[in-house]
Amino acid sequence: MIFKTLKWGIAWSLSLSLFCTNTVSAQKLNGKAVDPVDLVNPLMGTDSKPSLSNGNTYPAIGLPWGMNMWTPQTGKNGDGWQYTYAADKIRGLKQTHQPSPWMNDYGQFSLMPVTGKAAFDQEERASWFSHKAEKATPYYYSVYLADHDVTAELTPTERAAYFKFSFNKTDSAFVVLDAFDKGSEVQIIPEKNMVIGYSTRYSRGKLTNFKNYFVLIFDQPFDNYSTWEGKERFKGKLKSTADQTGAILGFKVKDKSKPVQVRVASSFISAEQALLNLNELGNRTFDQVKADGRAIWNEKLGRLAVEGDNIDQMRTFYSTLYRTLFFPNKLYEINASGEKVHYSPYNGKILPGYLYGGTGFWDTFRALYPFLNLMYPSINVEMQEGLKNAYLEGGFLPEWSSPGFADIMVGNNSASVVADAYIKGLRGYDINTLYEALKHGANNEGPMTAVGRKGVEYYNKLGYVPYDVGINENAARTLEYAYDDFTIYQLAKALKKPKADIELYAKRAQNYRHLFDPSTNLMRGKNKDGKFQSPFNPLKWGDAFTEGNSWHYSWSVFHDIEGLIGLMGGNKQFNTMLDSVFTQPPAFDDSYYGGTIHEIREMQIANMGQYAHGNQPIQHMIYLYNYSAQPWKTQYWVRQVLDRMYQATPDGYCGDEDNGQTSAWYVFSSLGFYPVCPATDEYVLGAPLFAKTTLKLENGKTVEILGNQASAQNFYVNDLKVNGKSYTKNWLSHQELVKGGTLSFDMTSKPNYNRGATLDAAPYSMSTELKTVFKK
Hints:
GH92 family glycosyl hydrolase, disordered N terminus, globular, nine-stranded antiparallel beta sheet, 27% helix, GH92_N, single chain, alpha+beta, 776 residues, 38 strands, GH-type_carb-bd
């Protein structure tokens, strides 16, 4: 079965090619058409290291939400910093599924062309390279490997890839396959120019029956071959199984006119399925696969068409947009019967249906998932069905999946991801099972700290997770649980669930109030006996909070900013507190960590006071002036962050990019609005960056966003018209937006102190809705 060629793969590739070439969309720079994919820099954010993140990204060469990506590997095997811009040697071209360097990778293997001798050790085979002889696009990568005088190229599909290695004339050309350590196998099949095998390496959780099976088919016969295990080579051996294995395939090469080409695919299910996945390439040539990949990216990126005269802004916009379209990535595959099936990292079985993985909801619930719900809802329908499968297979929804449960970060933010999709109108999946999953997660501790709710018994009894009961980051957990309860409340209302459910989660959504300290106007850890923890330093990172301090987390009341304003003493005091974030020096207490973590350093060097855009907890805070009658301050600070903290360069982020979240902030903010509170219908206003942006929605409608007179100086909103009518609110309705229309912002260099400065202009707050229920 493994060696059969299936016709459906060829048909799939041809139909895909026809679809993509008919849907390419060009953007306009100074009035001239530009393909959006040509504005993407996959190296944005790659100039990073553990002590300072400028993105912690790698050049991801793949298709949107594809099961596999590929990247040049500069770091040692197993190093999460698998590609860093400052490196000068490449060890291989690696298949990767890595969501971040902190999570590391799983199922990886690599290919590396070498000459002169069959060097297979990662240090010996590594070659010097230069960015001057490197070309990285979302759909194609090329690099000149100087020590071997070889140009290596690759172009991917969702589960396969095409490689091309251009050697000079030699009888000592080799392609080295590295299946990595922790248990791997390779088998060479010379009569078919084929290598099959598997990698079992992974970094997070406990994966039962995990293997990433791969198949490689070369376009020319092997002149010689070997396997290798660890440091030892076995000439002529066909199969090796060991801790670390690989293959060495030798070729006689006449010249560069006939490069060695190899088609590669993989599967988490079986070797037979890997061969099925190879049919994504069909019998297309390398250049055809490359052209089709380009068309796919142009279609996806082109759904947001921006027009302007600033090439740097356009490059940054499309480079960040590119990063929003990878995670979570597909874990499902298509079997011989055309059915969707997946390996389950939750129970080790092969099961039917969708599954996605590789994302942390602590990061991505904020803007990444709301962005999918606006611009790519059909893919999130698949993701929601995949979440249902994860719950049925693992007993809980994941909060960080890589690819299964990962014990990292806090909160129960799967509730937000599920609720926001339904509130925003997504349908066609099993929402009732997902609702039960949310209730289960909200009322139980999971198999590990980061699944379910750690401290749930305290939270449900006292209304908060106490500081003094041995549960770390307790205040952060409390604040996030309260917001997550709000999202369950919202979903319960939408699904017309029993009154008891609705009232329970409405009440719990107000639990944030337990941690508000009126003596400081900040959130503070509270002991089991009801007294605030002491001593209290609001600049102390960690401890009661997660990767931040009280100044960062005190705004994490996404669903009830009016309630928070009331606790702080009204709009004037609230605005003073907001202003204080920026006017304070970037002082910090890092004693909880025993050293300065990179998130602290990134705040310190940004020269924005206590504002720490490089991490997620405070990213929405800039938009809160819209709730307190000073929206012009939102407009000012949004532009400051857009201009200063992002650039399409290797050091172009101000912290971890984090699976599309920090990029989604940029994309939304460039449009002129942001989802402060997912699981509501509203976006909170900022100001558009571009003269014109057109959103091409999946329902066939379009939204035109005009930034009239927008410029480096004109970043304030003087007036807003929606479909030609003056609009005075500080928020937009999702349901109205998806009907299509025009948002016309008149931009100016001076604030309009009157627009949006009335109480009725403020966005949604739960206290507004329930004033008769919850009294201050």
